[in-house]
């Protein structure tokens, strides 16, 4: 970050650390799920809830938190979020049973929702033009890295300490960030903007009820009132949330953004691609331990090739997308990833990581590296700078909701048990989602918005 001024470097460091802990905790848990299930019980249903309790509150409240950040001050909201996240992490680590663990995970997600939009808002409030773009690029790189290295860190803690220590990884970066925040002297001017609490409640309750129905449905069936009643109520409440966004004077989700072609289609592609990534991350982390018998660290290392390729290729893909437009890369990247997902069908009872999993991870990593930076550039580049913060928050919310819904449906996807047949079913669904992401990008994303603007001027 040598090209940034000292204040800008401090802001970027704070923003990266705040978001890093949030995204890390979303993926670090995957390799800990078998250990959690062995100690606390509950099987695949508990495993789903451990992941989705966090994603429900994070996804549902991230847009509300953006408004709260504007209304009450970004530094204050971030400080509250960091402290709350730390306390919730301690509660997760000390949980004596699945219920307490799930409640604490939901509180973690709520605290995490305060961190992501306020961190981006700090960047957009203190930087402009190309400096802001580069800062967002740094932020995106580190948050993506957090999602990819999470399984490896989780595996090390599970194998050499305990699954409980997985949730204490964040204590040190949280403490460091609180110190950095105390050094950040920014003139805060809370906007006094009205916070639409009702919309936040409708979104959270709607998503929560739908996810409850999806997770519990394999156990009870759609005919059970315990399933169809909350499922129906959840759909109605979420529909009311969307309707309220059209009439609200201070919407959490400005529907006008979706009239911008690249933003709308880019978020639809995000929905499919990140659903596939969440599904793949869950089944890889769990099956390689429960099915293939690998230790947690080895299961975490399975996705390391994707991280390495992201580091080596992602920045170049961003530069190529700036030159040739994002459409080609947003199409080719998911399709290459789909090939990698299909290659996981070679996994057999006679398990061999080097021949059955590693090649698939390399191909998926290459596709992911070609996808992430162009996808981010297409979505944020389609929206003017004044709305870049909310545009990024919306895209993050879409990615989290994608993961939330697909994890809720895992029991249905794998047939109730994550055995070899279930693993193969998940690989097929992952590939199908990625193909949809590539097709949507090809249909919806313009080849190069800059070229089209130049052509219009001529």
How would you characterize this protein structure?
This protein has 458 residues and is mainly alpha-helical. It has three domains: 1-187, MFS general substrate transporter like domains (Growth Hormone, Chain: A, Up-down Bundle), CATH 1.20.1250; 197-251; 256-458, Up-down Bundle (Growth Hormone, Chain: A). It contains 20 helices and no strands. The protein has helices spanning 6-27, 33-40, 43-72, 74-93, 98-126, 129-160, 163-166, 171-183, 197-220, 225-247, 261-290, 296-301, 304-324, 327-343, 353-356, 358-381, 388-408, 410-414, 420-444, 449-457. The longest helix has 32 residues, at 129-160. It is globular. Residues 453-458 have low confidence and may be disordered.
